[in-house]
Write a structure and sequence with these properties.
By secondary structure, this protein is an all-alpha fold. It folds into 2 domains: 167 residues, no CATH class; 176 residues, no CATH class. Helix content is 74%, strand content 2%. The protein is built from 16 helices and 2 strands. It has a two-stranded antiparallel sheet with strand order 1-2. The protein is globular and about 75 Å long.
Length: 367
């Protein structure tokens, strides 16, 4: 038994298979967030720019696949599963054949995972990559064996557990729907915190909001929570990440901080408390409602989709006569809740957390 364990350790070392919380919870998770940014989030930004500025090349379909038309941004967004899986494989130092095979694994995991797609990709791509690395260059027909094992393990595991992970992600959605029945103050706190956390976690807050049809005051609270996370992390980490970090988190995704959250969960205190403050401000003070597309409720400041969704809801209400006009108070509320309050409150809370020694220099540094 002892010899077997020693041989196994030697084999894993030779294959650079390191089973550790850092390798999977920090390196792989951080890389996955970058893959998501370079596909889904950039695609969303491209679509938003195209629609708002009337750029026909960005709004017109450039490809039709299986009867579904895709814009440039839509194609980028559709590749989020493969992008995340390949990014994970790169972080795990997968050899070329394994890395390329992970495209299929990521697509299957994300498609079958629904709202839990990113979480499914994370788990399944890690397992598939490590199996692929284990058999890589162990046979004379490596060109066949390595892709077959990587894709076979990955797709089989996706079929087995991805749907369940999607249902688990929707458990957060059930909590959100329960919260929408609360009175506006408490609803503002609970929805803002839950949706904001979902945005930062490796699950899809946008998919959850779309599936729940989250609009109205609850949608406004969701926007507030997402902005608290994105703008909050972007501003409070400016010392470590400068302008690049401000942009990538502020109009990209706060999921980029998940690797750091795993290392030190206390860095999440300030954004969560900020969302608990801005949520009820949105619902009780400014009566901020999201009456645009429900998916926008879970996007926050990503490509300013959340803000555009609120505005499109206002415009529709004015056109239908249910709202007389878009007032200065409406704009002040949207700007304060989306940008100003998170940029001020979150760093102040984080300063207090730093003073008691829970957060230190470098804890928010992006890789």
């Amino acid at each position: 038994m002892k010899k077997f364990i020693e041989k196994l350790k030697a084999f894993l070392k030779k294959k650079d298979i390191v089973i550790s919380a850092r390798r999977y919870g920090v390196d792989a998770l951080g890389a996955m967030a970058q893959g998501l940014f370079c596909s889904l989030l950039v695609g969303t930004i491209i679509d938003t720019v195209g629609k708002q500025f009337g750029i026909s090349f960005l709004t017109s379909p450039v490809a039709t696949v299986g009867g579904v038309e895709y814009t440039v941004g839509g194609l980028a967004s559709a590749m989020s599963g493969p992008a995340m899986a390949i990014a994970i494989g790169h972080a795990l130092k997968a050899p070329p054949l394994v890395l390329f095979s992970l495209a299929a694994v990521g697509f299957a995991s994300n498609a079958l995972g629904g709202a839990g797609g990113p979480l499914a990709v994370l788990i399944i791509a890690i397992v598939a990559a490590e199996f692929g690395k284990a058999v890589s260059k162990e046979t004379k027909v490596d060109i066949l064996v390595t892709p077959l094992v990587t894709i076979g393990v990955g797709v089989a595991l996706a079929a087995l557990i991805a749907p369940a992970l999607g249902k688990a992600a929707m458990w957060v959605g059930n909590l959100i729907m329960w919260a929408t029945d609360l009175q506006p103050f408490l609803m503002g706190i609970v929805v803002s915190v839950l949706v904001g956390m979902a945005l930062t976690l490796p699950i899809s807050s946008a998919a959850i909001c779309a599936a729940l049809g989250l609009t109205g005051l609850a949608g406004g609270a969701a926007v507030a929570g997402c902005c608290a996370q994105m703008v909050g992390f972007a501003v409070m980490s400016f010392r470590e990440n400068k302008w690049g970090g401000l942009v990538s988190q502020g109009i990209g995704t706060s999921m980029l901080q998940m690797g750091n959250i795993v290392k030190n969960p206390r860095i999440w205190i300030a954004p969560i408390l900020t969302s608990a403050i801005t949520g009820p401000i949105a619902t009780c003070v400014f009566k901020l409602e999201m009456n645009g597309a429900p998916v926008s409720s879970g996007m926050g400041t990503c490509g300013f989709v959340g803000q555009i969704g609120v505005y499109s809801g206002w415009a529709s209400e004015v056109a239908s006569g249910t709202k007389s006009t878009i007032t200065a108070f409406d704009w002040i509320g949207l700007i304060l809740v989306s940008f100003v309050l998170p940029a001020v409150i979150c760093p102040l809370i984080n300063l207090a957390v730093r003073k008691i020694g829970w957060v230190k220099d470098g804890d928010l540094k992006l890789g």
